[in-house]
Amino acid sequence: MPEGPEIKQAADAVARAIAHTPLTHISFAFERLQPYEAILVNEQIWAVQSKGKAMLIRFQNQLNIYSHNQLYGKWYIQKANSYPTTNRQLRLAIHTPKKAALLYSASEIDVITNEQITSHPFLSRVGPDVLDDAMTVDQVRDRFLDKRFYRRGLVSLLLDQGFLCGLGNYLRSEVLFVARVHPSLRPIDCTPEQIDGLAKGAIAVSRQSYLTKGITNNLDTVAQLKQQGFSRQQYRFYVFNRDGRPCYSCGTAILKEIAGGRRIYYCPHCQKL
């Protein structure tokens, strides 16, 4: 599933392609949304925003297209009136005279008013967005220490979009590694230094992933590995998807476990229990 950084990158791409430009065509695959086609095609998009793993395409007439990619949704940017070769099903198409933004495979799409944003089933319950420029380390630290969260296991807490939105499975492993925190702990089990590391890591790792299109590893290490001929798959992460391979910090073999049906990776030396 795409995580916060990937959705924010997609929002940027959609905005560059179709915002502030007259629309020539818009179509929805879902019949219940098709009455909005005639309403929205006469409007301009003033912003495309991400909120964790969701996206809002915002129109000047106070309407918004909400979408959530879930597991398989994917945005394509094409020349106007052209379509990619894919077996995916087209769910939403927005065309301008020069560009088109096309959403395939996503099933969670809606049109909502500005007033409905605060009561939307997903948007109303998500926590602070780790990619929000206004988010501070102190605010994230307070979330970890909040009584609603501090007795919950970190492996589930870091996937809870009501705690912090935008984090997901690969970011969970990477944040825990950067903070040097064992996956079995809860915030209440952590030292103040570890809580500080978790708060800093949740922001820094997510923002680096956004800026580098998915690289969470130390960028100096990445540069060295590139020079040595390593592939992106080999240098992209600190620990995620690297089970059995040596930790870049200490050389210990990375371990993989299954928690809540999801993979988690960690270094048993750098993240001692």
Automatic annotation (TrEMBL):
Domain Formamidopyrimidine-DNA glycosylase catalytic, chain residue ranges per copy: 2-101
Member of which family? Belongs to the FPG family.
Q: Is the keyword Nuclease assigned to this protein? A: yes
Q: Which lineage?
A: Bacteria, Bacillati, Cyanobacteriota, Cyanophyceae, Leptolyngbyales
E.C. number(s) listed in UniProt: 4.2.99.18
Q: What is this protein's record name? A: DNA-(apurinic or apyrimidinic site) lyase
Keyword Cytoplasm among record annotations: no
Output the superkingdom of the source species: Bacteria
Pfam hit, one: H2TH
